Structure prediction request, 134 residues.
Amino acid sequence: MVHLRTKHALNDPRGPSWQEGPLAWFLEYFGKLNATMERMKQHQEQQAKYFEQIEKQEKYIERLSDLYENLYEQQIDFNKQYNDRMTNIETQLKYLLFTIHDPTPPPTDFPPSPPPLPSDTPSSSYRPPLPLPS
Prediction:
């Protein structure tokens, strides 16, 4: 821009710099301000992505926690069933051991004895189910 200093321009209350356009410091200041605003905008976008990641991780951890609780409950149920079965087997083994080695009647806490085997079938062969009473 060509600046012509005229008498009118020199007497202008806004000064000669108004006639010349924005000052260099003004342009530099707003350039830096614009760069700062851009950095702030980028930082806000990064923070938004970061918080989205945190939210996704929290949901993932919550799902893992639910799965763990479910597995834990299943394990507790399995352990109870296993202990019940093992107790039942142990009781049966005690009963068999007692009946094999001692012909006296079993104690009262033992379950009733199993039905006798048919005498005509060998003990190692397949035994069909017992007939239902008619």
